[in-house]
From TrEMBL:
Coiled coil: none annotated. Residues 1-19 form the signal peptide. GO terms for cellular component: extracellular space. This is Serpina5 protein. Keywords: Glycoprotein, Secreted, Signal.
């Protein structure tokens, strides 16, 4: 029996994805996106999906670092939905928190298209690269409608790849990924064989300088409590300044906003002692917006560890827990990509790296009664991130990276 040809979906940050629908529907979307591109909002914000995925990843790695890019994964699933039909498409859209109305689907693709266009504009203090690529075997016919939608809606690069020579194909793809992520993600693909016919890549690269840098002269070795009984020494940055600072009493944590140049922000979330899981369970889009919308500053003596963390995840094992199942089975409807009858999606790999130091980062109903902000006071408040904490990197209102630092 001839082996199943398989399609790999690889996410860099890295995220990957792609798919497409019927030709007529694709052209209809392209036309509508063009007609309605003026004044459209940025990419749809699927914060609840992001936090649900975070909880699923965190539960698979108790006591370990977690880092991924919700933006990359969401964009990848958006591309995947282009080439799907039936229950496969329904599960993806519902997983992203969208209704099944055609207007919602069009809004998804239009939002990502505008986000990609905006991110492609260079800025002095912030490097933010977000893109996609399709590597396809020249012997496999890819629908023109799918290629057109990939290029127009997701600005995807396309490459002819000889999967009959798996080692050469692997090198071609890994070299591309390493280049796009400035060498931060290498050897993403570990194994390919002659049954593979296509690899879809989505990547995100983020590098930003703090609005006000930490002085390396203030960085000292200090104690970080991995657990209440296990302590290690880590390089701890320190700066006294005014920061946006919030106490979220509803889920029992402290939040400090540290701004980058050019509209990006890092959120550092310190759970109360023994309350990490409570904080993780309480994360949702409403909570995130409350944190981002605070406009009150306090004078803080902030201690923050330098850290570099990375994570690689097999999302084909995780996403089914969030209801996105059919895409990874023989029941997947991927007919919008190719007329191959026996195509299946074999894996969806996501890899992320985030580094935080003195200069910046390289990567990545609560009411006033339960959510309060500390106003500026004459005395300085000392905040030490000396035990496991969560963090997020946000550009405007777009959630780029989300993670947990257990071991800096």
């Amino acid at each position: 029996m001839r082996p199943f040809p398989v399609l790999c979906l690889l996410l860099l940050s890295l995220g990957v994805a792609s798919r497409h629908r019927s030709r007529s529907r694709s052209r209809s979307w392209e036309k509508k996106v063009k007609e309605s591109s003026v004044g459209a909002e940025v990419a749809p914000r699927s914060e609840d999906f992001a936090f649900s995925l975070y909880r699923a990843l965190a539960s698979e790695a108790p006591g370990q670092n977690v880092i991924f890019s919700p933006m990359s994964v969401s964009l990848s699933l958006g591309m995947l939905s282009l080439g799907t039909g039936s229950h496969t498409k329904t599960q993806i859209l519902e997983g992203l928190g969208l209704s099944l109305q055609q207007s919602q689907e069009e809004k998804l693709h239009k939002g990502f298209q505008q986000l990609l266009q905006r991110f492609s504009q260079l800025r002095d203090g912030l490097q933010l690269g977000l893109g996609s690529a399709l590597f396809a075997d020249p012997n496999v016919h890819i629908r023109d409608s799918f290629l057109s939608a990939m290029k127009m809606l997701y600005m995807a690069d396309t490459f002819s790849t000889n999967f009959g020579n798996p080692e050469m194909a692997k090198k071609q793809i890994n070299d591309y990924v390493a280049k796009q992520t400035k060498g931060k993600i290498v050897d993403l693909i570990k194994d390919l064989d002659s049954t593979h016919i296509m690899v879809l890549i989505n990547y995100i690269f983020f590098r930003a300088k703090w609005e006000t840098a930490f002085s390396d002269k203030n960085t000292q070795q200090k104690t970080f409590y991995v657990t209440p009984k296990k302590a290690i020494q880590v390089p701890m940055m320190n700066r006294e300044d005014e920061y946006y600072y919030a106490i979220d009493q509803s889920i029992s944590c402290i939040v400090v906003k540290v701004p980058y140049q050019d509209n990006a922000t890092a959120l550092f979330i310190l759970p109360s002692e023994g309350r990490t899981q409570q904080v993780e369970n309480g994360l949702d889009g409403r909570v995130l917006r409350n944190w981002l919308n605070t406009d009150t500053k306090s004078l803080l003596n902030l201690y923050l560890p330098k850290f570099s963390i990375e994570g690689t995840y097999r999302l084909e094992k995780i996403l089914p827990k969030l209801g996105i199942r059919d895409a990874f089975t023989s029941h997947a409807d991927l007919s919008g990509i190719t007329n191959h009858a026996n195509i299946k999606l074999s894996e969806m790999v996501h890899a992320s790296v985030v580094e935080v130091d003195e200069s910046g980062t390289t990567a990545a109903a609560a009411t006033g009664e339960v959510f309060t902000f500390r106003s500026a006071r004459p005395r300085t408040v000392k905040i030490e991130f000396n035990r496991p904490f969560l963090f997020a990197i946000v550009e405007k209102m777009n959630l780029l990276f989300l993670g947990r630092v257990t071991h800096p």
